[in-house]
Specification:
The protein contains no helices and 25 strands. The protein has strands at residues 5-6, 21-23, 51-57, 62-67, 75-76, 80-84, 89-93, 101-105, 111-116, 121-122, 129-135, 144-145, 149-153, 159-169, 175-178, 184-185, 191-194, 200-205, 210-215, 221-224, 233-243, 246-249, 251-257, 265-269, 276-280. Strands 2, 3, 6, 8, 9, 12, 13 and 14 form an 8-stranded mixed beta sheet that branches. Strands 1, 16, 18, 19, 21, 22 and 23 form a 7-stranded mixed beta sheet that branches. Strands 4-11-7 form a 3-stranded antiparallel beta sheet, with no helix packed on it. Strand 21 (233-243) and strand 22 (246-249) form a beta hairpin. The radius of gyration is 26 Å and the shape is elongated. 35% of the residues are buried.
C-alpha cells in the first residue's frame, strides 16, 4: 500500500525543537567582556568560554534557542542570564523548569531572563537554558537576524560572560501535491505543488537523480515536467526548495509508473513531404 513520509534528511534535530526550528547549541568565539572576536572558545580573553546558541526558524513560526557554555565560577542568588531578541523576532517563553531558576519575558518580547533564586550558590554549569522565539512572517529565508545577544550577570549587575545567539531564518518546506501517492502514472507526469515564492524547486527520484526543476511563482505555485521518461514500476518522488543558501524538503510520495515514453506521443503526417510532428497525448 502506498504511503507518504518525510525523508530521513528532514529528521528533527534536538528534543526541544519546536515547529520550524533546528537547534545547534555550543560555544562561541570572542573576548569575554566585549563579546568581540578573540579566537576559538577557551582561547579568548583569560581563556574563558563564552555563551552561545543558534537556531533556524521559519518565517511566522516559533522555535527554541538553547543557551549554554558557561564554565566560570559559581554565581550567587540573584544572578541573571539575559537573551536579547534579534531584529524581526521576539521572545515568547522561557520553558526551563530547573529547580531554583525563575524565567521571565520582558513586555513586548524584546528579551527574556532566567534568575537564580533557589539558594546561596549557583554554578550555571551543566544546564542549557531554552528561550522560545517567534520570527516575523516577513523575515527573509536565508538571512541571519542581527542583534541577538547573551549576558550573564551577578546580583550586582557585573557581567561575567557575554555571547551571541545566531538565529537564521529557515525556508518553509515545499509541498508536492501532484502526482498523488499511489496513483498510476504515465512515464512523463507533470509534478506540481506550492513553495515559498522565488524558491528554486528540484524534484528528485529515489536514486536522488533530478527529474525536473523550476522556480516557484510569486503566488507560491510551481510545476514542471520530467525531461526524461520515468522507468516503469514503483518509484518515489520528493521536491527540494532552495533559496538564499537554505533548503527544505517535501514529504516523499510513492509512485507507480504504468505507461511508457512511447505511450505519451502520437505521430501524424503534416501532409507536406512526409515530415512527422510529435504531438503529446493529452
Amino acid at each position: 500500500m502506498s504511503w507518504s513520509r518525510r525523508s530521513w534528511k528532514t529528521t528533527v534535530l534536538g528534543s526541544l525543537a519546536m515547529a520550524g526550528a533546528v537547534l545547534v547549541p555550543g560555544t562561541a568565539y570572542g573576548g569575554v567582556e566585549s563579546g568581540g572576536p578573540g579566537g576559538p572558545a577557551g582561547q579568548g580573553d583569560q581563556g574563558r568560554q563564552e555563551l552561545w546558541a543558534s537556531a533556524t526558524i521559519e518565517p511566522g513560526r516559533k522555535g527554541v534557542v538553547e543557551v549554554g557554555g558557561y564554565e566560570g565560577e559559581p554565581l550567587g542568588e540573584g544572578s541573571v542570564l539575559t537573551l536579547t531578541a534579534p531584529a524581526k523576532a521576539r521572545v515568547t517563553g522561557v520553558p526551563f523548569a530547573g529547580l531554583g531558576y525563575r524565567g521571565a519575558v520582558a513586555p513586548g518580547g524584546n528579551s527574556g531572563t532566567y534568575t537564580f533564586v533557589g539558594g546561596a550558590v549557583s554554578t550555571w554549569k551543566g544546564h542549557k537554558f531554552p528561550f522560545a522565539l517567534s520570527v516575523d512572517p516577513d523575515a527573509e529565508p536565508g538571512t541571519r537576524l542581527p542583534d541577538c545577544t547573551l549576558a550573564l550577570r551577578d546580583a550586582e549587575g557585573t557581567v561575567h560572560r557575554r555571547g551571541t545567539c545566531s538565529v537564521t531564518v529557515g525556508l518553509p518546506a515545499p509541498v508536492l501535491s501532484h502526482p498523488q501517492s499511489g496513483v498510476p502514472l504515465s512515464a512523463v507526469p507533470e509534478t506540481s505543488g506550492t513553495a515559498y515564492p522565488g524558491a528554486q524547486i528540484t524534484v528528485r527520484d529515489a536514486q536522488e537523480d533530478e527529474v525536473c526543476a523550476t522556480t516557484a511563482a510569486p503566488n507560491g505555485t510551481w510545476s514542471c515536467v520530467p525531461g526524461r521518461a520515468l522507468p516503469a514500476g514503483a518509484g518515489r518522488l520528493q521536491a527540494t526548495a532552495t533559496l538564499n543558501g537554505v533548503s527544505a524538503m517535501s514529504e516523499q510520495i510513492d509512485i507507480v509508473v504504468t505507461g511508457s515514453a512511447r505511450d505519451e506521443h502520437d505521430t501524424v503526417s503534416d501532409g507536406g513531404g512526409g515530415r512527422l510532428h510529435v504531438l503529446p497525448r493529452v
